[in-house]
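Give me the 3D structure for Omega-hydroxypalmitate O-feruloyl transferase.
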Amino acid sequence: LLAARSPPCVTFPHHELDKFHDSNPPVIDATSEALDFKVFRLTSDDIASLKEKAKASAIGSHVSDARITGFNVVTALVWHCKALSWDNKESNLDRVSTLLYAVNIRPRLIPPLPMSYTGNAVLTAYARATCKEIDEAPFSRLVELVTEGAKRMTDEYARSAIDWGDIYQGFPNGEFLVSSWWKLGFDEVEYPWGRPKYSCPVVFQRKDIILFFPDIDDNNGVNVLVSLPSKEMSKFKTLFHKYLA
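Predicted structure for Omega-hydroxypalmitate O-feruloyl transferase (245 residues):
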């Protein structure tokens, strides 16, 4: 059901993928750098404020209220902070930042995958823009770019990505990946001894993966786990709190 076509046919540019031999280190690689680890908490009020900020700046844009979701506004905020905290000798506003996140393709395929199909059925969506646009664009524009990643994941796009993988044997590649545990329902799993009191990821030595996980004290809030070198973390923290002010 998810095999490449014969012959494979790549019909879209896939900026979220790269060939092994001509790419930077993939997102999933660990780093030997010393990293700081910090959890940034967003309350339900913070998220509501971000949604209002997106709506207020969306007048005349193509982003609809239906696209201004909790995930999209939090991801847009994190992208802004991560892209502009980059610490590199070549860092400049013309640099292109690429954000990656997983999209469930089950309902997007034609026909949809059957309910009996087990295992993961996700592909990588992306948003990309120059740091200049990320710095200067209204918040609604960042939200719009994030939503376009999932919107472009049609049946044909998914088939094209699968065919690309069959031809090039590559991997997801971008500046960073957002991995969301936010709405996965870990807190609803029934063990013999009852439901878990708390679920969270284990800290790992990867600076290019940012994790969202539920806030135990606020059902509609979210915790954002960020791991970055100290200098970049300081910039990220400043940008994060400035954007919420």
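The longest strand covers residues 218-228. Let me know if you want a second pass.
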